[in-house]
Amino acid sequence: MKDYIKHDPWKIIEEGFVPEYNRISESLCSLGNGHMGQRANFEETYTGDTLPGNYMAGVYYPDKTIVGWWKNGYPEYFAKVLNAPDWIGLSIRLGGEEIDLATAEVEDFHREIDMKTGILFRRTRLRLNNGSLVELESSRFVSMERPEAGCFRYDLRLLEGEGKIEVSSFIEGNVHNEDANYNEYFWEQLGEYLDSDSEAILIKTKKTAFTLASRITTKVSLLASDGSASAVDSTGSEKTPGRVARSFSSPLKAGETLRIEKYNSSLTDRDHDADKLLEKGAAVLSDAVSAGFDTLKEEHIRAWAHIWDQSDITIDGDVAAQQGIRFNIFQLKQTYTGKDERLNIGPKGFTGEKYGGASYWDTEAYCLPFFLSTADAGIARQLLVYRHNHLERAIENAGKLGFTEGAALYPMVTMNGEECHNEWEITFEEIHRNGAIAFGIYDYIRCTGDRDYLMPMGMEVLTGIARFWKQRVNWSEAKKKYVMLGVTGPNEYENNVHNNWYTNYIAAWCLRYTAQCAESLAAERSEEYRDLASGLSLTSAELAEFKSIADQMYLPEDTEKGVYLQQDGFLDKEIKPVDQLAAADRPLNQNWSWDRILRSCYIKQADVLQGFFFFEDDFDTETLKRNFDFYEPLTVHESSLSPCVHTILAESLGYKEKAYEMYLRTARLDLDDYNNDTEDGCHITSMAGTWMSVVMGFGGLRHREGTLYLNPALPEQWKAYSFKLMNRGTLMRVSVSDRGIELENQGEKTVSLMLGTRDDAKEVTVEAGQTVSC
Amino acid sequence: MKDYIKHDPWKIIEEGFVPEYNRISESLCSLGNGHMGQRANFEETYTGDTLPGNYMAGVYYPDKTIVGWWKNGYPEYFAKVLNAPDWIGLSIRLGGEEIDLATAEVEDFHREIDMKTGILFRRTRLRLNNGSLVELESSRFVSMERPEAGCFRYDLRLLEGEGKIEVSSFIEGNVHNEDANYNEYFWEQLGEYLDSDSEAILIKTKKTAFTLASRITTKVSLLASDGSASAVDSTGSEKTPGRVARSFSSPLKAGETLRIEKYNSSLTDRDHDADKLLEKGAAVLSDAVSAGFDTLKEEHIRAWAHIWDQSDITIDGDVAAQQGIRFNIFQLKQTYTGKDERLNIGPKGFTGEKYGGASYWDTEAYCLPFFLSTADAGIARQLLVYRHNHLERAIENAGKLGFTEGAALYPMVTMNGEECHNEWEITFEEIHRNGAIAFGIYDYIRCTGDRDYLMPMGMEVLTGIARFWKQRVNWSEAKKKYVMLGVTGPNEYENNVHNNWYTNYIAAWCLRYTAQCAESLAAERSEEYRDLASGLSLTSAELAEFKSIADQMYLPEDTEKGVYLQQDGFLDKEIKPVDQLAAADRPLNQNWSWDRILRSCYIKQADVLQGFFFFEDDFDTETLKRNFDFYEPLTVHESSLSPCVHTILAESLGYKEKAYEMYLRTARLDLDDYNNDTEDGCHITSMAGTWMSVVMGFGGLRHREGTLYLNPALPEQWKAYSFKLMNRGTLMRVSVSDRGIELENQGEKTVSLMLGTRDDAKEVTVEAGQTVSC
Questions:
Q1: What is the enclosing helix (H) or strand (E) of B461?
Q2: Rounded distance, CA B413 to CA B421, Å?
Q3: Is B475 on the interface with A (CB under 8 A)?
Q4: Rounded Cα distance, B233 and A300, in Å
Q5: B85, B172 contact by CB (below 8 A)
Q6: Residues 6+ apart with CB under 8 A from B626
Q7: CB-CB under 8 Å, A479 with B73
Q8: What is the pLDDT of residue A341?
Q9: Does B22 reach chain A within 8 Å, measured CB to CB?
């Protein structure tokens, strides 16, 4: 845990340069716009420790799976998020000395990202070895308005000294991933291009053959001490394989500023014909250059203002909490914009290269509720369409494991619909993701009311998933129930367990929900449904089978303790609460062997409670409480997805202190480097959990049969808080303080909602434009 | 399954050349002498499909473990059996055309290994493209008498045509393993040496830094049609990095024979100082060359005669069975000679590079009984000393997993005592190997009576193992018993199960046996024991704890069915006998996904029956029968270690037909390429199981409290059979036919044994030199 980021409501600020924290700051101050992103690396040369990172959404490399004993059905590759060409690079020499924070004396240093504007800013004062004193100031962003463009302005002010300044501004395509085997390069160079006003490279990934065109224009000018500007002409350009550069040079006197404005366009053949990439990229770049830095910046800030208008959360009286929640929202919105149905939300977004793949079950279980409530419904729908587009691949994936007749198993991790993780205990066994994907459809419909999505997309996905569960269970003669053997639940600190309560429960739910949807569609839209069912060969006999399995599903339980069992045999473990563990043992995954973790009672994230989070209304409060009381003390929360669920449940059970403790744990996970791994990148998907902690936890948001419920409570550590809620096209602002609750309808339609708990709530109606205090 | 090997009592014969079978024949006809070995590759150039293989015992390479999600305690590397320099290579050109079975027309082909003599022989007649007709004949062996030397005689007889013959005889050190990543080379070249009468290379493995000196001398002569010989002088020698070669050339006429005799010495710094290797290698080689091919061959045949004298099994009336059993004995004796306590018995011996590592639990569970009964006790003792030498590493290995206070976990696979396999479900969980290692000590003592081994070596190993079990169990409040969670049993078609009956049983046995040994030693040799116990901090309280855990160990059982349960929850599976599976599904591991296999009831090798094999006398016949009847029909025998156990149990339960069926399955596994994988090498360790099938199965051999039991029965498919038995220094020959049983005491001491079953046996005494008929 670290505490070097300054607390500020809107900014992430690093004050003073600590080289050991550089990678962490690079992660925290990452930029992204859904199409591309980059870590907050320095523009100029830096020979100290850094993790260079530039990423293009959807561009990956399939690293071959290598395992001691290969078994049938193992996925063939592990998809790596690929480091892409670095377009920000500058090499600057003053009086012959390279500007480099690692070799100069850093007299002053300030790096920040302004979450309100999405602009990365840095100011630093350096004493060079040759005695010169310079101040650098850079402002950088990847445009939210023009996703294929990015730019920065970089001012070098000479405070003391005098000399020739030489600048080389380049694109470096010779990059590799840090964990590449034997420093293998994953890109092939296709060509370098030096035009009169721009330079470009064209490169292609090995094996996957994604083509990328990256192009830059650099404008350099000299600002006299009176502010008057004169252009500095280029002294030439050059190319080597995978690299292009343009040079500038000028004398520089104390008081003068060299201003560098660099513009980039990065386009891939995911969006354009490969043979048009250079041409299109030139057009995107030239438009950006014509608009100029200031205009691009204004557009970009406007785009962010719109995002914040829909999704901001304010917290009064706790700036650390305020900064934390905004950081989480900011990173989520940088990662996914919903503009490209082929994309999804990778665990590191654009902040690092660790963990391959672009989508996990996190998307449906954690991110979908966030996007459902903070953006137009179309964005959440894209996340559903993404899975529908992958249905055929999911059926193939199930086929590789021996499933037949249209059974679909969605991959645990994927880039393109294929499984791309490489551990059997996860890929074969962590099948609960299929449940979350079905639940996502349910969640989308209950929030948006868009039942059209079922016809045919939702029904096709649900049918594939239900057929998987139908084949995945088997009848146990011993139990006289359907059982599900050999699974890994959300608690990945167990593998290959039998009858994981969560998995069995969500499987039964999927089977029932699929049958329900089919039956109601058959009644409501009989003709259309008949065609759909016939295309899917879905008969009423099969629907009856779905329900019969669901009704006879085994759910492990200990009646004496009155708790559901995470899986068969859980009570054979030595049960000892987490608080009895020595501090030196925590986190377990850094201190215990995997062997010991598997055998222990300690839970990475609590499966039964995850089930309660989804299906809370299926259980009475006493049951929720007994299980929470049993599992919470055994949970180590070493999954970043864990604490938010505990906040929400604890709050609804009246465990205020626990709720707040868990909230703190999720909100500042990366900012305070809680798990000592932020240097690898931020935990993007779990950030949606922080939003859920506030809105569903303290705010009590629930969707029950088409009705919105709120039950806001004020944590005693806060003076007030507010959140935005997008519900069926109407934006609402919910403010909570010790004076009560204010509901402000910022939309154009009347909103009716229930205020209170599921058992005790009153209806409140808020007219468009009105604010109601309760 | 294939059937191209000719049936013969002593030889493995391939008649006619089928290129598709070449790799299989290369495996079957492999040579080895405990120190080094090689596949039966051709000496001359072969551009067709081949798996070149030369191996030096104990020389390996640690390939880095690569896994998607690294966890603490994962082994760092996977040890590869390393392909070593090829010293047999010849390039022969006749009239300018390279001799190559892939390009010439093969008119006749015969390859055989004579198991009686350990000599690989090949004769082939080739029509070259230039019209010449040649006959090649080669005889090759690696010397059993001089383990660092090998040689061959290669005659090329020109039958038709005339031309210049050019020979290049070389060592090729630029070799790599077939599965190497990106064809990476694992050897570094240290130097090449051209002397007047020999050529050598010195090379070193990367990372592990084993140094190897390989040296050759080649003698070429011309045999006229009347048999008179004249030397062919060398035309020069040459070297390139990692390669040395010497050339010869001569005119050759029809009726003349070019004879090439090539000698090799291969020495490593495992046995000599690295800086003396070249010198020592020159001496070994020069001695061999002085002795000459015929003398080396005689010595080698003599050494094999001695081996067969101690270990042969004869079977009358079934030549396929005779060939099968001899093949198994032959390969075992080629693989391990007991001369080097640092070596052990790798799963592929010297026949292939697949599967890393040199020792598995197979050694104690399968190979030890073979060596105990077919060689002097010193050889079996070496296998025990090997584990004692690794005790410290086993304690370190347990330490990496969080065990303390001298608990030892032997690696599942090792080269040097460190774990060198790389899958957690095997390395962390297949801990029953610890039990087999302890059982090996028990087995050794009951066969040899050598209780001295316990002081201190055996007791040190047993204590480390017992301490591991003590810490590995935990008390289950639910069961009020000690349980063992998260293990993989011998049946590797299940992973991470709880309360594996076999593992729990052998753990309890280990704990009890350790306490028993300690208590009896304390009584018998109190002073010595006191020192030992004090050195180990082994108190009577700890011994009491061992016994208490053993007494309260949970053993899963289904009282209704009257069977032990392989593990908790086994009866939740869909139980359907193997014979109801479609033929197309078999073998499962080539047709089903791992996922499906894990969930199924099908057993690779039956854990409970493996336990019965070790602890038969702990159970009454009805119990043995009920469990056999339950598990046998569920067993697919896809472990080569499985069928022999079933032969032995079936025979003792009176299931004659099943016993013979299982015998056939084990005896000709490689010869008939039963599992379609002999091309990768032979299944060496399971070969000991074939021996056990005959001697313990049909012969009924048991050791009970210092007494030898035999209960020979004659399979109805055989006319007669005999086996050799080395028991406490006395060699006995047991012959069984329809005329009865003959016991021939070939030793110098009187032998007393029990003839019959455990419940009904009579004592028989055989004087030295006498034969008794019963």
A1: helix B457-472
A2: 6
A3: yes
A4: 85
A5: yes
A6: B561, B562, B563
A7: no
A8: 85
A9: no
- The Cα angle at residue A325 between residues A678 and A54, in degrees rounded to 5: 40
Provide, as residue numbers in chain B, all residues whose Cβ is less than 8 Å from the Cβ of A587: none
pLDDT band, very low/low/confident/very high, at A183 (cuts 50, 70, 90): low
Per-residue pLDDT tens over the stretch B448-481: 999 999 999 999 999 999 999 999 999 999 999 9
* Mean pLDDT to the nearest integer, A265-275: 97
Q: Is residue A236 helix, strand or coil? A: strand
- pLDDT band at residue A180 using 50, 70 and 90 as cut-offs: low
Is B184 assigned a catalytic role? no
- By C-alpha distance, the chain A residue nearest B492 is A69
**pLDDT of B676:** 83
Distance from CA of B571 to the nearest CA of A (A): 6
User: What is residue B182's predicted lDDT score, i.e. its pLDDT?
Assistant: 47
Asked if residue B298 lies in contact with residue B145, where contact means CB atoms within 8 angstroms, the answer is no
| Cα dist from B598 to A266, A362, A394, B246, whole Å | 47, 27, 21, 56
> What would the two tokens of residue A689 be?
């959990």
Who among A423, A475, A596 is closest to B68 (CB)?
A423
The answer to whether residue B478 neighbours chain A at the CB level (below 8 Å) is yes
For the cut 80, the answer to whether the pLDDT of residue A356 exceeds it is no
User: What is the pLDDT of chain B when averaged over all its residues?
Assistant: 95
Structure tokens, A455: 């016809």
pLDDT band for A182, please (50, 70, 90 cuts). very low
Give the separation between CA A205 and CA A212, rounded to whole angstroms.
8
Is the CB of A595 less than 8 angstroms away from the CB of B356? no
| β-bridge partners, B517 | none
Please list every residue in chain B whose beta carbon sits closer than 8 Å to the beta carbon of residue A575. 477
Q: Are residues A595 and B477, on separate chains, in Cβ contact within 8 Å?
A: no
As given in the structure block, the two tokens for residue B578 are: 């193997």
pLDDT of A422 > 50? The answer is yes
Residues of chain B with pLDDT under 70: 66, 179-184
The pLDDT confidence band at residue A207, using thresholds 50, 70 and 90, is: confident
Q: Do B595 and A182 touch (CB under 8 A)?
A: no
High-pLDDT (> 70) share of chain A, %: 99
- Kindly compute the dihedral angle of the four CA atoms of residues B326, B330, B331, B337, in this order, to the nearest 10 degrees: 150
* Joined tokens for residue B714: 């004659």
B73 contacts A595? CB cut-off 8 A: yes
The sign of the dihedral angle between the CA atoms of A562, A567, A568, A572 is negative
Predicted ipTM?
Answer: 0.88
Can you read off the two tokens belonging to residue A677? 């791994």
**Which one, of B165, B176, B96, lies nearest residue B136 by Cα?**
B165
Find residues 47-66 of chain A whose CB sits inside 8 Å of chain B: 66
CB-based contact B285:B215 (threshold 8 Å): yes
Instruction: Report the DSSP pairing between strands B563-564 and B557-558.
Output: antiparallel
Host H or E run for residue A526: helix A526-536
B101 contacts: CB under 8 Å, gap ≥ 6: B17, B42, B46, B48, B109, B124, B126
CB contact set of B201 (below 8 Å; sequence gap of 6+): B85, B171, B173, B189, B190, B191, B192, B193, B213, B214, B242, B243, B244
Active-site annotation holder among A492, A494, A542, A638: A492
Q: Which residues of A touch B70 (CB under 8 A)?
A: none
Q: Is A425 in Cβ contact with B594 (below 8 Å)?
A: no
List A residues 547-566 in contact with B (Cβ-Cβ < 8 A).
none
Could you write out the DSSP letters of every residue in B186-205?
A: -EEEEEEEE-SS-EEEEEEE
Q: In terms of residues, how long is chain B?
A: 774
A478:B68 CB<8 A = no
Query: Quick check: A73 contacting B, CB < 8 Å?
Result: yes
pTM value > 0.80: yes
